[in-house]
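for the recovery benchmark. tokens below, seq after
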């Protein structure tokens, strides 16, 4: 079990894991009624073959269960990945924490170009400091309004309407290695938003530790899900 912090209040925590390289080769070899108990060089070759030829199903017999804390806008991107299971904290049942993501230093960026070919550039120090302050002030106002509404007796499910998408949420995500590789392929790519990329790189590290041979083969064959 490992936990990595991300940005100001976020984290990626591996809550449970049933994943190894051996399950990949055994589920592939069941086609021939064969099974091995220890991993060999031939198995590395088999995993590379499966990855290269895009025989994806042997990479599905495993499971990673993550506990994530991230801003709502990152979660929204994350939840688009349909192959996996999600459960999220409820804004109906809990009073949401008054913490929002404040981008720091060069995370405050400008955007130029056309859709599909944007360039994002860090802004100068004075501007980024100002922007971080504007965002923090806005959070203060919106969380103040949220707390005011809750204290007036308004249902939390209505009071939350005033909260920004930078507000932190948390969720559990259970996913197999094949869908995980698809997630990593898309969300570590330099075209993905920088914030979700930071999370995806933490996930990548955990994946690499659990399934090192699969991980190397995935990198070798273009970081694309088989
Ligand atoms: C840089 C970037 C920009 C994006 N911009 C936008 C945007 O502007 N608007 C927007 O709406 N989304 C956007 N997305 C989200 C994107 O369209 C996908 O919804 C998201 O990346 C999930 O990918 P996925 O469908 O491959 O993953 P999953 O849903 O986890 O699916 C995994 C794989 O399963 C298969 N699969 C799953 N469901 C189906 C299905 N119904 N039919 C057929 N095959 C299926 C596919 O092979 C798929 O690749 C963006 C994503 C990225 C990375």
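predicted aa per position
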């Amino acid at each position: 079990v490992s936990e990595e912090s991300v940005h100001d209040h976020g984290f990626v925590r591996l809550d449970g894991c049933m994943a190894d390289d051996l399950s990949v080769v055994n589920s592939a070899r069941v086609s021939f009624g064969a099974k091995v108990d220890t991993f060999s060089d031939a198995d590395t070759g088999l995993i590379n073959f499966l990855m290269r030829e895009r025989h994806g199903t042997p990479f599905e017999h495993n499971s990673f269960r993550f506990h994530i804390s991230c801003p709502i806008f990152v979660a929204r991107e994350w939840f688009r990945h349909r192959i996996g299971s999600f459960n999220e904290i409820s804004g109906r049942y809990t009073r949401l924490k008054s913490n929002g993501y404040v981008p720091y230093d060069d995370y405050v960026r400008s955007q130029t170009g056309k859709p599909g070919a944007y360039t994002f550039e860090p802004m100068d120090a004075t501007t980024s400091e100002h922007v971080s302050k504007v965002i923090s002030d806005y959070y203060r106002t919106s969380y103040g309004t949220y707390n005011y509404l809750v204290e007036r007796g308004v249902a939390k499910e209505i009071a939350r309407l005033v909260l920004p998408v930078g507000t932190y949420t948390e969720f559990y995500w259970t996913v197999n290695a094949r869908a995980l590789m698809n997630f990593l392929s898309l969300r570590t790519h330099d075209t993905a938003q920088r914030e979700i990329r930071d999370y995806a790189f933490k996930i990548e590290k955990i994946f690499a530790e659990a399934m090192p041979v699969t991980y190397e083969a995935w990198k070798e064959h273009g970081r694309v899900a088989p």
